[in-house]
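Please, structure for the following, as tokens.
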Amino acid sequence: MTTDQQFHRIAVLGAGVMGSGITTLALGSGVSVDLVDVDTRTLDRARSGIRTQLRHAQLLGALPGDRPQGELTTSVSMSGLAHADAVIEAITEDAGLKAKVLGEVSELVRPGTPVISNTSGIPIDELAGAVRRPEDLLGTHFMNPTYLISMVEVIRGPRTGDAVLAATQALLTTLRRKAVVVRDAPGFVTSRLLHPMINDAARIVAEGTATVEDVDTLMQGCLGHPTGPLRTADLIGIDNLVDALDALYERTGEKRNSPCELLREKVRAGELGRKSGRGFYDYGEGIS
């Protein structure tokens, strides 16, 4: 695969928040997508959510108006992966499950096809042992909402090949995204900085030092954080945040990375953020 190859069709595995968001970005950029998930109801919700996100992105001028949209195909089977120009895995942040799925993917795709794990912090080399061709594996960390955030963290594992890295950068250019390539490490750059900060913000609220609103207002007004850490937690998904913090704590041993009790309480209560309708803030009925 060369950097001047046209990306006509990609596969996205996982129809949750991130998988749907990546699919929206690709479709709006003129790239067709095979969206795969094991659950048909999740795929049904994703189709509806993707239509909504595409309308929202178009109203905001966040997607190119001069390209026809790509075609969306949904499936519970990975049998079509052999025809994909790239595969982006965006399933739950579980290293064992990711390794299993990526191993299955690597048996289906053509050699040289980028096999991309979208992860907020699991080291790519931990996953490389599960795939047939480790040189074809690398990581991305798309930010939510993908159609509004123009930069993507790209993680090059120790065994990632030059050709697949270049092809992935070309794909991101097609999606009008700027790639910043970093070396493999737990949490990479963005999660290693952002997630502990959100954890600390939740601790401050739990201790009664300040309200949720005041923490976010101070971070916005004094330190230039665009949304505030706790609104950001709601956007990430508090369950996803807890999973990512657990993974970071397991790999670093740094106590600051261990999710605070307030975050765990919210997960137990089903208050997961925007997608559930309530997290640190109230969003009504929630979104897909």
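The beta strands are 9-13, 32-36, 72-75, 87-89, 115-118, 137-141, 151-156, 178-183. The two ends are 34 Å apart (CA to CA).
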